[in-house]
Write a structure and sequence with these properties.
By secondary structure, the chain is an alpha/beta fold. The chain has three domains: 43 residues, no CATH class; 139 residues, 3-Layer(aba) Sandwich (Rossmann fold), CATH 3.40.50; 132 residues, Response regulator (Rossmann fold, 3-Layer(aba) Sandwich), CATH 3.40.50.2300. The chain is built from twelve helices and twelve strands. The strands form two sheets. It has a six-stranded parallel sheet with strand order 2-1-3-4-5-11, with helices on both faces. The protein has a six-stranded mixed sheet with strand order 7-6-8-9-10-12, sandwiched between helices. α1 crosses α3 and α9 runs parallel beside α10. The longest helix is centred in the last third of the chain and has 18 residues. The chain is elongated, with a radius of gyration of 23 Å.
């Protein structure tokens, strides 16, 4: 039976976190303590899972996604499918569990189902909560199953790396765009999806930080959650603009963008608010092309779906050590004028 990090911690008289830092060269740790921990690990016969020799055909990679029916998942899912094909050629199985919401219990159920199937590595879009945090650390430290997060991240875990957009940076970029559009004056409504979604929260955080730093005369009129639902987006926009007609900017960090179009049509505005949305989906291309939005920020969902399973497979079969904790995808800003010709 494989030696666990918990067993090493007990033998060395230190915490599991200290053992993890020593074995993976993460964070600050006394060099002498680190050396003693490594000696203890060696004496116990500990071998990290990603350094064990395994035949490709014995490996199973699990993937758990969120918001499976959302439009932004189209490109992510395409990347996952391509990764599955590449792994199949290597005799490695990819097992996908798709969650419909940002829900802790739904995600825990999916992860536990994959554990029961005997996965060797996990690529995860995590719900940002303590239950998932504890589960991730348990898998890594107790079962030696490496975890890579993608699209959304979670702090306080020993996951190998994160693959996705620098969401805080993208939020700051959106604030810069909004500042230019509004000349730094007016009121901006922010629409998010789920408040438990790390991606949404980080984008909003970056946006607010940049507004305060660079556009003090651009007022935040509120942050409202839509659950990525177009009907909710429509209600939010209509009721907010009817209550605060001076709103001249809308920043939408999540799905349900069709609700913007319906709301603008219902309100019959002479001039709609400046609008920034995310994700280059077929529907959003149309919204951009037809002038419903001014800017669209794309996060390269294909890479987010394709890269993590391949990285996990290489960790398990090629002894790959991931040096970069954050593998950020490009922040691609589109206008109707920069869409590919076939989209115009």
């Amino acid at each position: 039976m494989a030696v666990t990090i918990q067993q090493i911690a007990e033998a060395a008289g230190v915490s599991r976190g200290t053992v993890d830092r020593a074995l993976n060269n993460r964070g600050r740790i006394n060099p002498q303590v680190a050396e003693e921990i490594r000696k203890t690990a060696e004496e116990l016969g500990y071998v990290p899972r990603h350094r064990r020799k395994k035949k490709d055909g014995n490996i199973k990679i699990g993937v758990v996604t969120l918001l499976a029916r959302s439009s932004f998942m189209l490109e992510v899912s395409r990347g996952i499918r391509d990764a599955a094909g590449q792994l199949k050629d290597r005799g490695i199985e990819l097992v996908l569990k798709e969650c419909l919401a940002v829900d802790e219990n739904e995600q825990l159920t999916a992860i536990e189902a994959l554990e029961a199937e005997g996965i060797d590595g996990l690529a995860l879009m995590p719900v940002d909560c303590e239950g998932i945090r504890v589960k991730i650390n348990h898998m890594i430290e107790q079962k030696n199953i490496p975890v890579i997060t993608f699209n959304s991240d979670i702090v306080g875990t020993a996951r190998s790396c994160f693959v996705g957009m620098d969401n805080r940076k993208s939020g700051r970029a959106a604030a810069g765009l909004m500042g230019m559009l509004t000349q730094g004056r007016g009121k901006v409504l922010v629409i998010t999806g789920y408040f438990g979604n790390n991606v949404n929260n980080t984008r909003v955080g970056g946006f607010v930080e940049e507004l305060k730093a660079s556009y003090p005369n651009l007022e935040l009129a509120g942050v409202q959650g839509s659950f990525d639902n177009a009907d909710e987006v429509e209600k939010i926009v209509v009721s907010t603009i009817q209550t605060i007609p001076s709103i001249n900017g809308i920043f939408m960090v999540s799905g349900g963008q069709q609700g913007l179009e319906r709301a603008y049509q219902k309100l019959g505005l002479e001039k709609r608010p400046y609008t920034i949305i995310y994700d280059l989906t077929p529907r959003n291309r149309r919204l951009l092309r037809q002038g419903v939005a001014d800017f669209l920020i794309d996060q390269n969902g294909y890479v987010q779906g394709q890269q993590p399973p391949i990285l996990l497979a290489d960790m398990l079969t090629k002894k790959l050590k991931i040096e970069e904790e954050y593998r950020y995808t490009d922040i691609d800003i589109k206008t109707k004028h920069t869409l590919p010709e076939e989209e115009l």
